[in-house]
Specification:
Blueprint: E1 4-5, E2 10-12, H1 15-22, E3 25-26, E4 29-31, H2 41-50, E5 55-59, H3 63-75, E6 81-85, H4 112-119, H5 137-142, H6 151-162, H7 170-180, H8 183-191
Parallel strand pairs: 1-3, 2-4, 2-5, 5-6
Length: 195
């Protein structure tokens, strides 16, 4: 089977995440080694160097994944980071005896189709997100996802509809929506929110 070429390096947490992606993706895939990235100056330097033209962060949606993502966001230029978020799906990876503390699948447990959809904008050097209408903070304001008394609840409802972590910041959610959905698909999802 021919692998899908991804134009940017991808950062994942561990070797099993890398192994999953390597099965169908042709890309530079770097692991953080979990929390060891916090003290591994050599790995930090490597990641900074390969991020010069842009980098994809693909960590788990649990607490650990969020900590690692936040750390990397602190050492890399924000305009070079493309944050991808896996959906929250209950279950356990086949190699594990019991589920993770969050009870959700990590990157290694995601279906190939889910991961490929996330990576589509970066396929073969394409920049599909530049060829379509992008969402902005104004859209979020007009759709009452920011700036209203119940904006937080509306964002959580949107996250739930999309299978995304429900505690995403408005900026992270905006980026995720632009990567995952067209403008029209976003509007259809917002129309389903009854809060």
């Amino acid at each position: 089977m021919e692998k899908v070429k991804i134009s940017l390096p991808i950062i994942v947490e561990g070797r099993y995440d890398k192994s999953t992606l390597s099965g169908f993706v042709d890309a530079t895939i770097i692991t953080t080694g979990g929390f060891s990235i916090f003290n591994n100056k050599e790995k930090q330097a490597l990641i900074k160097r390969i991020a010069k033209d842009g980098i994809i962060l693909l960590t788990d949606s649990d607490g650990g994944g969020k900590q690692i993502r936040k750390f990397l966001q602190g050492i890399l230029p924000s305009d070079k980071i493309h944050n991808l978020y896996i959906p929250k799906i209950e279950g356990k990876e086949s190699r594990k005896r019991k589920p993770s503390a969050s009870g959700n699948l990590g990157v290694e447990g995601m279906e190939k189709d889910v991961l490929l959809r996330l990576l589509t904008p970066f396929k073969n050097g394409e920049t599909a997100q530049k060829e379509r209408k992008m969402l902005s903070k104004v859209d979020f304001f007009e759709d009452k996802l920011t700036g209203c008394d119940n904006s937080s609840e509306r964002r959580k409802a949107l996250c739930s509809l999309c299978g995304l972590p429900n505690d995403m910041t408005s900026n992270a959610l905006l980026e995720a929506m632009n990567l995952l959905y067209s403008y029209e698909e976003y509007k259809q999802l917002v129309a389903k929110i009854d809060i």
